[in-house]
TrEMBL record:
Enzymatic class: ligase
Species whose genome carries this gene: Hyaloscypha bicolor E
GO cellular component terms, A-Z: cytoplasm
Xref: PANTHER family: PHOSPHORIBOSYLAMINOIMIDAZOLE-SUCCINOCARBOXAMIDE SYNTHASE
UniProt GO BP: 'de novo' IMP biosynthetic process
Protein name according to UniProt: Phosphoribosylaminoimidazole-succinocarboxamide synthase
Domain of life, source organism: Eukaryota
Length: 309
């Protein structure tokens, strides 16, 4: 069993070439059709990566994504995903297993559509700001009189954005602009799948005490079968806003599961958006605790049992 509390902020492998380094994940090439997706314990807030990591965060993201990758196709029959296995490729040496186990998954290597498929069920964050200003969300008119954190009366709305290069901000785009970027056929499929994914996950999570306020999905194209495939991480605290249902109250900002402690601390210390920040132990521990709590609620599994597998 891998040590649960080793903090991994950098990875390198002898056997496989690293092809990309995201804010959280490192991508290695297994072969021309397969990638090894390794989630580090890096954490970013306000687009800046902290100097130290959060213990087990990468494992939580990987195992939570795997949970959804197994569950979602049973709820959405036409869904295809990039998930292959949590097992490590045979080329990885035994001595490298401990640092990779549970934080890695093999996935199908696909051509990624350069849009982020964002679905919102509740009005919060930038959508709430826009609504207060202009009565619109993503430039679409929305019924008057909504309060902060209230559910959209239409259930879920699709608000795509561009997928910006590293260091740049994603930009909101209209559904028509999304269709221009990926082509109308794929754009429609992406929108339909994103809405189905969000609503299925929202209903599943609601039964487990978590409100999924919104979520971001990414898709890729399987060029051989011409299928649109769900990729990246899915329905984790990094890609979604999770709110504890028992603390939910309309008319105010919600406590969120993921980075609330970190964001509050950065703001109170005047460190918001600054580089080179090291989080104090208390912030690290509280954040780790919250990620773990979300994992346990959503999967129904104890964390100590999950990492043993
Ligand atoms: P960015 O997505 O801009 O790199 P990020 O910080 O979110 O930022 P990570 O989540 O750390 O990136 O890394 C995951 C990267 O791998 C993303 O760029 C994502 O688009 C890409 N990716 C996800 N699934 C696949 C796949 N099946 N094939 C190829 N690339 C993928
Ligand atoms: Mg990402």
């Amino acid at each position: 069993m891998a040590e649960p509390d080793t903090v991994v902020t950098k990875t390198s492998l002898e056997a496989l070439p690293k092809i990309a380094e995201g804010k959280v994940r490192d991508l290695y090439e297994v072969d021309s059709k397969t990638l090894l997706f390794v989630a580090s314990d890096r954490i970013s807030a306000y687009d800046v990566i902290m100097d130290n990591g959060v213990p087990s965060k990468g494992k939580l993201l990987t195992l939570l994504s795997a949970h959804w990758f197994k569950l979602l196709p049973t709820l959405i029959p036409d869904l295809r995903t990039h998930f292959l296995t949590l097992s490590l490729p045979s080329s990885i040496r035994e001595s490298e297993h401990a640092k990779l186990q549970n934080r890695s998954m093999q996935v199908r290597r696909l051509k990624i559509f350069p849009i982020e498929a964002i679905v919102r069920g509740y009005i919060t964050g930038s959508a709430w700001k826009e609504y207060q200003r202009s009565g619109t969300v993503h430039k679409m008119p929305i019924v008057a009189g909504l309060k902060e954190s209230e559910a959209f009366p239409q259930g879920a709305i699709y608000t795509p954005s561009t997928k910006a290069e590293a260091g740049q901000n994603d930009e909101n785009i209209s559904i028509a602009e999304a269709a221009k970027i990926v082509g109308p056929k794929y754009a429609q499929k992406i929108e339909d799948l994103a809405i189905k994914l969000y609503t299925s996950a929202r209903d599943y999570a609601a039964e487990r005490g978590i409100i999924i306020a919104d979520s971001k999905f990414e898709f890729g194209l399987d060029e051989e079968s011409d299928e649109v495939v769900l990729v990246d991480e899915v329905l984790t605290p990094d890609s979604s806003r999770f709110w504890p249902a028992d603390k939910y109250q309309i008319g105010r900002e919600q406590m969120s599961y993921d980075k609330q402690y970190l964001r509050d601390w950065l703001t109170s210390e005047g460190l918001k958006g600054k580089q080179g920040v090291k989080m104090p132990e208390e912030v690290v521990n509280k954040t780790a605790e919250k990620y773990r709590e979300a994992f346990e609620k959503l999967t129904g599994q104890k964390w100590v049992d999950a990492v043993k597998i």
